[in-house]
From TrEMBL:
This is Amino acid permease. It comes from Paenibacillus phytorum. The keyword Transmembrane helix applies. Pfam families: AA_permease_2 (PF13520). Keywords: Membrane, Transmembrane, Transmembrane helix.
Length: 608
């Protein structure tokens, strides 16, 4: 049943030589890898307004200069990451750049930040998409968390089906969103130019505002910079592009930057001119669409495409997280399971881990986007800063042709990224302080995992590990629960291995049962030694392990190895297991981690 459901949901397995077919062209890559950045248009301007409204509505005109600053930062990041794409064409982004130029710990801080960031990408995007849905259908507000979880599961299944298949499906909503936003901005600007929107709805640019401060403006700028999250995803996912991958990735990055700049500037300007104020139960884009078209068919098209892009923005995380996890796993900093491709040639373990982690976050924060965005944004600007600084070191060290221009671009990118990061820590410390705890903790865990893998390798390597202890003989202990075909099957198997001694062990709870079993055994298997153990507290494991300890101590004197051979019957239907005591599983669980003890299960399959 599980296999049938799996095939239905994710499709038939693909051959390894079909990997080349699982590459993205520029159109699909733009949709899949830019959806996070483009979707931030739906909440980035709103985050600026949420800061300015603490002063007054008259302060909304400051969104214009703040937006210009955000666009300048976007330009610096696009140019910087374009250089990273050509310098590191095999992907890895900030992790690889920082590791190679700033040292291993810097790379791990960048990698750890991005891993957390991609989890937050999914949680924030899905939460924001759910907000858009509940803005259009307010009666769904009580089900926000449930809707968000269902959307995560849906996106996860799509990604498990393979990157090209998910891209083919998800590209249409992304481009539909871009088209809908272009129509909204175009019609909105037309209404402004033709005088259909009153100029009294907003305060003129330059209006003095009491209570405004540099601190508050910097806070609004840093919050608005959350619109730039996702810019680095393309540099991480270069291996997903068709040949030539760096060239295609660079063009995709430029196209993404241009679209993001137009959409962000357009939404900010319309929000300012319409005098839009953020509301708890309606997004800024929803208010702009309602003011431009009214709550008609076009309004619901914009809300629908906005909800879709916000949900699908999570796909950027699904595209970039597994590839970053592969780089870290190859360096032995996270579990090797992340390097394994699934049935559809995607890194399915990374996809599933990302889904589970993001669902836990959504439940923890109850689907409230505004609670996640500060952590989300600061997690992006840490690797932004490290990546640009790493590129500075690279150009100074290597001094390639035109390195002064390249150095200048990365210097501006590094400075602005560092500035935004510090503004976040200064202005939103109460919301982002946890980064200062969990990032060092993540790096510490990385090092512990690396240490474990190195220790395992050292112990397994034939040239360095201790010489194997010679085995002179073998003693087999067979726990038995009765005189059955299951026990008979296990004893026959034990005899076939020709051990030096076979000991059957029976644990009795009553003295009478102990005597009766001994009599039956001597009649049934007189050639196999039986040891009966009385358990006053009705425990099987405790007396059995004590007996095994005794046998092991004696066996060790003669270099004998002890094997515990556990009989187990397997019902014909898997669900029937719940109808039987799982004593064999319990015994195996207790014995498996004992040193110098071999634990073997002998299955007996029932036919009916």
């Amino acid at each position: 049943m599980f296999s049938v459901i799996k095939r239905f949901l994710i499709g038939q397995p693909l051959k390894s030589n079909e990997l080349g077919e699982q590459k993205l062209n520029k159109k699909k890559a733009l949709a899949i890898l830019s959806s996070d950045a483009l979707s931030s248009v739906a909440y980035g301007p709103e985050q600026i307004l949420l800061v300015l409204i603490t002063v007054s509505a008259a302060a909304y005109w400051y969104t214009i200069p703040i937006a210009i600053g955000v666009l300048f930062l976007l330009l610096a990041l696009i140019l910087s990451y374009q250089q990273i794409i050509y310098a590191y064409p095999h992907g890895g982004g900030a992790y690889v750049v920082s590791k190679e130029n700033l040292g291993m710990n810097a790379g791990l801080f960048a990698g750890g930040s991005l891993l957390v960031d991609y989890i937050l990408t999914v949680a924030v995007s899905i939460s924001a998409g759910t907000d858009a849905i509940t803005s259009a259908f307010p009666h769904l507000h009580p089900y926000t968390v449930v809707i968000a979880i269902l959307l995560v599961i849906f996106i996860t299944i799509l990604n498990l089906r393979g990157i090209t298949e998910s891209a083919s499906i998800l590209a249409y909503p992304v481009y539909l969103f871009v088209l809908a936003l272009f129509i909204l901005i175009g019609v909105g600007l037309y209404n402004i130019v033709t005088g259909n929107v009153s100029a009294e709805l907003h305060a003129p640019i330059g209006t003095p505002v009491a209570g405004i401060s540099l601190f508050l403006l910097l806070r609004a700028f840093s919050t608005g910079s959350s619109a730039l999250t996702g810019v680095e995803a393309i540099s991480n996912a270069i291996p997903n592009f068709e040949d030539s991958a760096p060239k295609n990735a660079s063009k995709t990055l430029m196209a993404m930057g241009l679209l993001l700049a137009i959409l962000f500037a357009g939404v900010v300007y319309l929000a300012y001119y319409y005098g839009i104020s953020p509301k708890e139960k309606e997004t800024v884009v929803s208010q702009i669409a309602a003011a431009t078209f009214g709550r008609n068919f076009m309004y619901y098209i914009i809300q629908g495409t906005t909800a879709m892009i916000l949900v699908l923005a999570a796909n950027t995380g699904y595209s970039a997280f597994p590839l970053l996890a592969v780089n870290l796993a190859k360096d032995k900093f996270i579990a090797r399971m992340f390097t394994i491709r699934g049935d559809r040639l995607g890194y399915s373990n990374g996809i599933i881990f990302l889904a589970v982690a993001s669902i836990l976050l959504i439940i923890l924060f109850k689907g409230k986007t505004e609670h996640l965005i500060p952590l989300y944004a600061v997690g992006v600007f840490i690797p932004f800063t490290l990546a640009q600084t790493g590129m500075l070191v690279k150009w100074i060290r290597e001094k390639p042709k035109g390195w002064i221009v390249k150095l200048t671009i990365n210097l501006v990118g590094a400075f602005m990224s560092f500035t935004v990061m510090m503004i976040f820590f200064i202005t939103k410390f109460g919301q982002v302080w946890s980064v200062l705890i969990f990032l060092p903790l993540i790096v510490f865990i990385f090092h512990q995992i690396k240490k474990h893998y190195e220790a395992v390798g050292e112990q397994l390597r034939i040239t360095t590990c201790e010489p194997a202890i010679p085995i002179e003989g073998n003693v087999m202990i067979v726990p038995v629960a009765g005189i059955t075909h299951v026990v008979e099957n296990s004893l026959n198997y034990a005899k076939s291995l020709s051990p030096d001694q076979i000991i059957a062990v029976y644990v009795a709870f009553e003295r009478d049962a102990e005597k009766q079993f001994e009599e039956k055994w001597n009649t049934w298997q007189p050639d196999i030694r039986l040891v009966t153990l009385h358990s006053q507290y009705r425990s099987i494991v405790q007396p059995l392990t004590k007996f095994i300890d005794t046998v092991e101590n004696k066996a060790a004197e003669s270099n004998f190895r002890v094997t515990v051979l556990i009989p187990q019957f397997i019902p014909k239907k898997s669900w029937q297991n719940i109808l039987h005591n799982q004593s064999s599983l319990l015994i195996r669980a207790f014995l498996l981690y004992r040193r110098n003890l071999i634990v073997t299960t002998v299955p007996y399959h029932l036919k009916k």
